[in-house]
């Protein structure tokens, strides 16, 4: 008991260990703790990841000269719609490909997000419209199983490129909010701004009423164990957010109409919320066809393009590819008109995306 066991280690093994340890210490000193010019592989990798300084300036320079076509609707359409319609074709991926004799398109095969548009908006890159895929490339290309998938807009958010988070009033307007767990939750989680106000319009009070408090870190915390990555419940609404949310069970409209519970949204934004271009204003609009007259008004009103920093709009149109979603009721608007509306919005300075 207690006597050392009698096996011996060959001294060469000990010498080897000491040599290896010494080498490690010397290399570590050279690499991390000295100013000696050690071949810094990591440094050159990380600097090669950065854009060259000229490229960075381009990304942030809002006075950049754009091609002349960007002063026109054609530039923002990114497709010669006239030529397309004259050839009596419908906007389908197949027709687009045969008309322009495109080779197989790597963007279509791999990329969930689309290409950049030819023209910037507010001086910043934005995604190219994809009308042939009903503006829903992730879903249409079977990258996503959900028609409501929004992944493709994530790389193009304006607030990822300009600071919309340091303005003191930061407002999210959800026009046609549906249930709380749809777009409001998405914007709260995914949009890189801490909104100080949320104004949500949904005429159906059964769909959207002010939610209950449902989250605090203590109640939703699972102690450290092998399942600690699992939370106990789906996170609900924290108390701080409830005080910021205002719910309106009213129609979003172009004109006030008390009997029909309709609100003139332009007046509401300007005269009730008193929003100005000093504020951060992000608007999501999904109002079942009422977007047409409202957006028409906004394009004739330069104040609105200045007040609204970023606009997400579901433009409703009649096209047979959308009839499974009961969109026939939006006739006579067509997908070509929807594309034109979106391009006109950009031409008028709205950083506009098709939603979702
Ligand atoms: C932005 O681009 C314009 C035109 O190319 C140039 O004159 C100006 O110096 C640039 N501004 C910055 C901040 O890089
Ligand atoms: C678009 O097509 C029409 C008709 O083919 C043509 O007249 C027009 O010049 C084209 N526009 C552009 C910008 O190429
Ligand atoms: C809605 O409000 C705006 C801003 O106050 C106003 O200019 C417009 O005329 C109103 N719309 C209608 C249909 O009255």
Automatic annotation (TrEMBL):
<dbReference type="InterPro" id="IPR029063">
    <property type="entry name" value="SAM-dependent_MTases_sf"/>
</dbReference>
<keyword id="KW-1133">Transmembrane helix</keyword>
<keyword id="KW-0812">Transmembrane</keyword>
<protein>
    <recommendedName>
        <fullName>Methyltransferase FkbM domain-containing protein</fullName>
    </recommendedName>
</protein>
<feature type="transmembrane region" description="Helical">
    <location>
        <begin position="12"/>
        <end position="31"/>
    </location>
</feature>
<dbReference type="InterPro" id="IPR026913">
    <property type="entry name" value="METTL24"/>
</dbReference>
<keyword id="KW-0472">Membrane</keyword>
């Amino acid at each position: 008991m207690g006597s050392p066991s009698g096996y011996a280690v060959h001294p060469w093994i000990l010498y080897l260990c000491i040599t290896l340890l010494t080498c490690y210490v010397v290399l570590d000193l050279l690499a991390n703790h000295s100013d000696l010019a050690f071949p810094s592989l990591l440094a050159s990798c990380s600097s090669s990841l950065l854009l060259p300084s000229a490229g960075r300036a381009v990304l942030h320079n809002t006075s950049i000269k754009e091609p002349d076509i960007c002063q026109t609707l054609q530039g923002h359409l990114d497709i010669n719609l006239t030529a397309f319609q004259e050839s009596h074709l419908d906007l389908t991926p197949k027709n687009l490909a045969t008309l322009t004799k495109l080779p197989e398109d790597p963007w279509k095969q791999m990329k969930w997000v689309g290409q950049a548009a030819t023209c910037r908006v507010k001086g910043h890159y934005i995604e190219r419209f994809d009308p042939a895929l009903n503006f829903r490339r992730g879903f249409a290309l079977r990258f996503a199983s959900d028609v409501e998938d929004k992944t493709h807009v994530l790389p193009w958010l304006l607030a990822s490129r300009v600071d919309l988070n340091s303005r003191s009033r930061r407002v999210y307007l959800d026009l046609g909010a549906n249930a709380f767990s749809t777009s409001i939750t998405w914007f709260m989680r995914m949009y890189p701004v801490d909104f100080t106000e949320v104004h949500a319009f949904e005429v159906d009070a059964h769909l959207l009423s002010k939610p209950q408090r449902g989250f605090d870190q203590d109640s939703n915390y699972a102690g450290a164990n092998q399942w600690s990555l699992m939370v106990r419940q789906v996170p609900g609404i924290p108390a701080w957010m409830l005080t910021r949310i205002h719910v309106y069970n009213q129609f979003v409209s172009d004109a006030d109409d008390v009997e029909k519970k309709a609100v003139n949204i332009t007046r509401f934004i300007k005269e009730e919320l008193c929003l100005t271009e000093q504020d951060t204003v992000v608007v999501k609009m999904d109002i079942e066809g009422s977007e047409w007259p409202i957006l028409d008004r906004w394009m004739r009103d330069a104040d609105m393009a200045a007040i609204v920093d970023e606009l997400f709009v579901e433009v409703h149109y009649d096209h047979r590819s959308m009839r499974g979603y009961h969109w026939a009721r939006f006739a006579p608007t067509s997908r070509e008109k929807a594309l034109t509306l979106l391009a006109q919005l950009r031409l008028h300075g709205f950083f506009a995306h098709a939603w979702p």
